[in-house]
Amino acid sequence: MFIDEIKFYAKAGTGGDGVVRWRREKFVDKGGPNGGDGGKGGDIYAVAVSDIHLLSKYKHKKEWRGNDGFEGAGGSRKGKDGLDTVIELPVGSVITNIESGGSVSLDYPGQKELLLKGGFGGYGNEQFKTSINTTPTKATKGKVGEQGNFKIELQLFADVGLVGLPNAGKSSLLNAVTNASAKIGSYQFTTLDPNLGDFFGFTIADIPGLIEGASEGKGLGIKFLRHIKRTRMLAHLVSLENENPMKVYKQIRKELGSYDESLLEKDEVIILTKADVLDLDKKTDQKKIEKIKKEFEKTGKPIFTLSLYDDESVKNLMDELVKLLRK
Ligand SMILES: Nc1nc2c(ncn2[C@@H]2O[C@H](COP(=O)(O)OP(=O)(O)OP(=O)(O)O)[C@@H](O)[C@H]2O)c(=O)[nH]1
Ligand SMILES: [Mg+2]
Question: From 2's CA, which of 120, 122, 139, 216 has a CA 20 to 30 Å away?
Answer without folding.
Answer: 216
